[in-house]
UniProtKB/TrEMBL annotation:
InterPro entries, sorted: DUF4142, Ferritin-like
Stored PANTHER family: BLR2558 PROTEIN
Gene3D superfamilies reported in the protein's UniProt record: 1.20.1260.10
All copies of domain DUF4142, residue ranges: 65-200
Lineage of the species this protein comes from: Bacteria, Pseudomonadati, Pseudomonadota, Alphaproteobacteria, Sphingomonadales
Pfam families listed in its UniProt record: DUF4142 (PF13628)
Protein name: DUF4142 domain-containing protein
């Protein structure tokens, strides 16, 4: 199986090019806390709204735009951070190609969602990783070289399944029409990620 990494860079003002994150992935390895901060800044999510805003309820992410944007942003940060770690630590070319694809796709998803929110007059709240996401990154950082690929892939499957459920739910019943359309456009991308990770799990020991 060969995974093709798509490079669809967006050059609009105020949005990052994927090469910024790719440079980060190939730079001197950072600990996962540094990677979270770097990934958040690279995709333009840090400080996008007042830090005093209450944390949106995750259960409302399929209906409420603030909860949707918060959780979608946190999901993208998790995917980018874990995939940067994979590029830095995996020795498997297919896993590295998959990680590069995730970085590209989730950067573009973030850019599109933020642009859509702005056009709709919606302010995106600054996202924050959930305790589960932080725990998963810590587990990945502690994984041995022999187990790293499987730990990474085993994390990607449930993370993408949760993202798919949220995207499908908001696309069906979200409160902002423009964001519903953006969520619907993300669905086939996330579905493709799930297919890819399932195939990789069948070949990685």
């Amino acid at each position: 199986m060969k995974i093709q990494c798509r490079r669809n860079e967006r050059s609009g003002a105020g949005f990052p090019r994927n090469r910024e994150i790719e440079r980060m992935a190939r730079s001197k390895p950072m600990n996962f806390k540094q990677l979270i901060l770097a990934a958040t800044a690279a995709v333009g999510l840090a400080g996008s709204a007042s830090a005093t805003l209450p944390t949106p309820n995750p259960a409302a992410a399929t209906r409420d735009n603030q909860a949707f944007l918060f959780n979608a942003g946190a999901g993208d940060i998790f995917e980018i951070t874990s995939s940067v770690m994979a590029i830095q630590h995996s020795q498997n070319p297919q896993v590295r190609a998959f990680a590069s694809m995730l970085i590209s796709d989730h950067t573009n998803l973030t850019n599109n969602t933020l642009a859509t929110a702005k056009a709709a007059g919606v302010m995106a709240p600054p996202p924050e990783l959930s305790p589960m996401q932080k725990s998963m990154l810590a587990q990945l950082a502690a994984a041995s070289p022999a187990s790293f690929d499987r730990v990474y892939l085993q994390q990607q499957l449930p993370a993408h399944q949760m993202a798919l459920q949220m995207m499908q739910g908001y696309a069906a019943q979200g409160d902002v029409p423009q964001l519903r359309q953006a969520a619907g456009g993300a669905v086939p991308i996330v579905q493709n990620h799930i297919r890819e990770v399932q195939q990789l799990l069948g070949s990685v020991r």
